[in-house]
Amino acid sequence: MLFVCLTATVSACEPRRNGQSTSASPALALIDTVVLAENDSAFIGQPIGLVPVPSAGYLISDIRNGVIHHYGPDGSLIKRIGRRGGGPDEFKFGPGLLVLDADSLLFAGDGNRVKVFNYRTGRALWERTLPGRTPMPLAAMNGGLLFSFIRPDSRSTIGSVQTATDSAARGGPFPDLLGRNRAIAEFFSFLQVARWQGDSIAVAVQSSDFLYIGTLQGRKFDSVGIAVRSRQGARHDLLLNVTDDPKSVYPVIYKPSTPTALIRLSSGNFAYVVSDLEMINQSRFSARMFITVVNPRTGRACPDAEVPAPTDPKALTAFRGDTLLVLSQHIAGTRMTTLIRRYNVSTEGCKWLSFSES
Amino acid sequence: MAELFRVVVGRPTTEVAARACRTRKKKSHVWNAAECLFVAMSCFLCGCADSRNTVLDLRLDDGRVVHELIRKQGLTAVLLYDATTCLSCKTPLPYWEAAAREGRINIVVLLAGKLTEADRRVLRIQRVPVTGFLTQVSSGFAFPSEYLLRDGSIIASAIGTAAVYKQRLWMHSPVVPVADSSSAVHVSTKETTGLGSSLSQMGSGLRSSLLAMK
C-alpha cells in the first residue's frame, strides 16, 4: 500500500519536470514577423537586451559588437548607439540589459555600470557605477532606474537611482528564502520587477516560485505562488541543500528557471516569462522559454506555455503592452537572419491552477 | 623575477614560468624565488619552448601553418582564443575588428578547443571571422593570447585575460613607430603592467607607448 502511495506521489510530480502537458496554458497567437535588416558589416551578433520603443521600433543591445541597434517597426536599421571602448558613449563590457523610460532615457548595463543615453539622439547623458555584486537594470519608475540589488543584510531586492550622483535607495519585497544563507542570495540573483499599482511593485526571483508584492521601500504585503507545470521551477528541493559553502551551489545553480520578463497586463494579470537554461559549455547556454499568466487577486496561474523560439542561440523576450515580442536568430544555408515575432497572449481556455495544484 | 629566469635559463622566459611567478606576488620573496626557479628549471628540462617563438609554427586543423597567414609587410595580429570564450564574446575581438575594418591591420583569429556543430553555427551567426581552428594545441599556450607582428616578426604579445585587457595591444598597433625587428628583446612586464603579460620591446617608441597606457 505504501509503495502504491509513493508511486502515485512521484508520478504526480513527473509532469512538472518533464515538460508534459501544456494543454491548458496561455495561447500564443502569432501577429506578425519582422525581419531585421543586416549585412556582413552591420549585423546583430549576440543580442543581450531587447526593448520596444514606445512609438514603434526596437532597441537591441549587442554585446558582440558593443553597440545598441535602433530598428524601425519595419526592420530597417535607423541608427546605432554607442560603440566598443572606454569613453562616455562607449561600452567596455556591454551593452547588457536595456531599460527605456517614458522620457526617452535609455539605461544600458555595462558591467557594474549603467550608461544613460537619450535614445532619440543617441547622445550619452550620464553614467555611474551601480552598487552590488551583479547589478542588472530592470525597469524604469518615477524617472529613475530600478536594478537588482539583493542584500540579505538589509533585506533588499531592488535598488533605485535617479541621477549620476545620488545615493542608491534599496528596498523591494524580500523573500525569506534569499535570507536563508549567503550562497543563495549571491548565486541566485536573477530577478524581474514590474509595477503593481501606484508605487508598489511585484518581484519574481530565481530562487522561488512565488511572486512577491510590496513597496520599493521594502515592505512586503503579499505573495502569490505560481503554479509550475512544464518549466523547471525554482527547485526548492535542491535549494534546501545549499549551504554557505559556494561548492554546494554548483549542482544547483543552473537548474532553476531564470526570470526573464515580467509585466502587468491590461487585464490586471501579470505575464511572467522564464528561461530554463541548459549549459552547453563554460560560457554558453541554450534555453527553453515559458510564459505564465498570473492572476494576483485569485492567487492562481495559467502556467507554462512554451515560447516558440529556437533554444540555441537562446531567444530574447520583451513586452509591448500586452504583446509578447520574441527575438531569435536563424541560419539557413549561408543566410543569417534575426527576427522579431509578435504574439498575442490569450488566457482563453486556460486552466487556472493554484500553487498547491502544481 | 623574469630577469632571474633569463640568467638561470639563459633564454627568453617561458610564458608558463613567467605567469607562475606573477601569481605568487603575495608570498615571501625567498619562497617566491625558489618556486619560480623550480618552475623555470622544470620547463627548461622538459624542453618547453617559448610560446612566442612557436606560435608562428602552430599548425591549423586544415594543415596550414600560422606563419603562412602572416603578411610579410605591415601589421598583423594573431589572436588565439578559446572557442568558448569567443562564443560568449569575452575577448577584445571587436576592437581588433574595428582596426581591421579601417585597413590598419590584418587579423588572424585562431580558435582552440573542440567545437560542436551548434558552436560553429553560433560562430557563423555572430560573424566571427575565424581564420582557422586549433583542435590540437600544445598545453604551453594560454588563452586568450594576442601577438602583434610587424613585417612578419612578433613585436608585442599579451598572454592571458588580464594581460589582454590591460595591455590593449589593439590601441597602439596602428600608431606606434616600430624599430627594426631584429633588435627585439624580451623584457619583464613588471614595470609596464604588473599583471603578468609579456611583451617584446622593439625600441623606445613602443615601450613608452605601453607605459603611457597604464
Structure description:
The complex is a heterodimer of chains A (358) and B (214). By secondary structure, chain A is mainly β. Chain A contains 3 helices and 27 strands. In chain A, the strands form 7 sheets. Chain A has a 5-stranded antiparallel sheet with strand order 20-21-22-23-27, with no helix packed on it. In chain A, strands 1-26-25-24 form a 4-stranded antiparallel sheet, with no helix packed on it. In chain A, a hairpin with a 2-residue loop joins strand 12 (137-141) and strand 13 (144-151). Chain B has 214 residues and is α/β, with parallel strands linked by helices. In chain B, the strands form 2 sheets. A 5-stranded mixed sheet of chain B has the order 3-2-1-4-5. In chain B, strands 6-7 form a two-stranded antiparallel ribbon. In chain B, helix 7 links the parallel strand 2 and strand 3 (132-134). The longest helix of chain B is centred in the N-terminal third of the chain and has 18 residues, at 29-46. Mean pLDDT of chain B is 65; it is low at 1-27, 42-52 and 175-214.
